[in-house]
Every structure is written in structure tokens, then in C-alpha cells.
Amino acid sequence: MSDVKARPSKLKFKGEKSKKKRKRDDDDEGRSGSSKRRDEEDSDTWVVPDDAVEIRGPTFILHPSDPSPITVNYNATSGKIVLYSVDKDDSADGEPIKLLDRTPTDVAQVWVVTRVAGSPTINIRTGTGEGKFLSCDKFGLVSADRDARGPQEEWTPVVFPDGMVAFMNMYEKYLSVDEVAGGTLQLRGDSEEVGFRERFWVKIQYKYKKEANEEVKKKKEGAAGPAAADEETANKLYQTWGAGRTVLSKDDKKELKQAKKEGRLAEALLERRAKLKSDRFC
């Protein structure tokens, strides 16, 4: 895979103030604008993905560590990954916020997930700073200091029935939370199996989940039946050689035209293709 430079992008959090818009005088337009704002708010809601293909766009990664759940952050100043305890983040009434109700409160907690169309692997880059990619080397060392993506920056997300996610690297090892000397926690990428340390909660924005499901639906609908055969395109596909030159006699054209009327164009083209191959190699 060729290296691709990351492109920084500005992230917007739920509840962040937007620029004021001109107030509409017409009541209908006002209601329409209000409905649109509600739709936009719903689109930015953070949700748990049900399938690996839904993991895309701004992504919030948490681990249910005991006794302190943690979020996976990136410190743009030091260029280091930081595992931050969320124990002291309480709600207004003093009650602890449930783990799955938590949403990012700082851009350092947000990663941006991208993927090549049709690929099961994803790239995870920082949502702040220069846009560094999360990578893992063959020794299991995890970092976020790469400007471009390659094999070591590819991860395969695995979604379990309970909704938790494991991330497998190119060496078929799993990302995990590991305790080192002094009780410090860090990310490693050398786990052979998936256990508690390798399971994360992942939250994405609803609009990206919806977008992924719409793409899957379109693919399924496209695969529901054979595509309609276009005579000119089909002719060039099955009947050409030598710089794309179409080779059809007058009788061939007449035969294919009749086959099209009878609804057996694809069958006739395959027969012509077999005949042409036979003629060429006799």
C-alpha cells in the first residue's frame, strides 16, 4: 500500500456553539430550520457500532479498566499516547457518568478512522496536531508518530456480540492495555488472544454509522440481480482485442441484435467470445 499523508481536520463536539444564523420571519421556515438542527444534533450523537464496517470517522476509544475506566488520548505537545482516567469526570449532580454514556470532552480523546473501500482494515490517526497514525511494530510497541500510513498502521477491528471491540494488527496480534513498572498503563500490540485487557468500548458518531449501513444496503441491492447488458459495452468487453478495436461482421451484428430482442444477449455474447477464442488459436 502506498503511503498517504494525513490531512488535519477540525472536529466539532456535541454542544459546541455554532455561528448564529439570520432569524427567519416565516413560521414554516422557522420550523424547518428547527427540524434541521435536531437532525444535525442526532447525527453528531455518539453511539456504539454494531458492525466493524461502521467504525469510521471521529472515534472515541475507552477501556473499562478497574477501578478507573480510561480513555485513549493523544498528547500533541509530547507526541505520546496517554491513557487518561475518567474517574473524576462526574455529572452535575455528583453521580458518576456511566461508561457507555460518556462522550469526548476534549479533541485529544478523539481519533479519526479511515479505510480503503472494500478493505477490512482501518487506519487510526489522531484528531489533533499534525494527524499522526497509530502504529505497531513487530515487537508490540504502539506509537502515534507516523506521518504516513503503511502495513504497520493497519488495524482490523473485531466486534464481539456484547458490542466491545478488539483491534488486530498486521502481525495478527491484539492491541491491549498493559501495566508497566510503577503501575503506569500503556498500550501494547503483542497479545496472542483476546481477553479483558484487549477489549475496548468504541463510540462513533451516528451519521457515520448510518452512512456505512446505507453503503452496505446499496451493495446488497446491486448484487441482487445481474446488471442489464449494454450492447456496445458488452461487445467491447467480450469481442475486442488490438487496442480495443471491435471485430464484428455484418452477420454477427445481425445475430446479436436478434438475441437482444429475444432477451438472450449475454448468452449470445458468451458464445461469440468462445467462438472468437477458438478461431484465434486454431
UniProtKB/TrEMBL annotation:
Q: Which InterPro entries match?
A: Actin-crosslinking (IPR008999), FRG1 (IPR010414)
Task: Give start-end positions of Basic residues composition bias.
Answer: 7-23
| CDD domains, A to Z | beta-trefoil_FSCN_fungal_FRG1-like
Q: Which domain of life is it from?
A: Eukaryota
Record localization: Nucleus, Nucleolus
Molecular function GO labels? actin filament binding
Alphabetically ordered keywords of this record: Nucleus
- Cross-referenced PANTHER family: FRG1 PROTEIN, FSHD REGION GENE 1
Q: Which family does it belong to?
A: Belongs to the FRG1 family.
Its name, as the record gives it, is Actin-bundling protein
The organism named in the record is Candolleomyces aberdarensis
Species lineage: Eukaryota, Fungi, Dikarya, Basidiomycota, Agaricomycotina
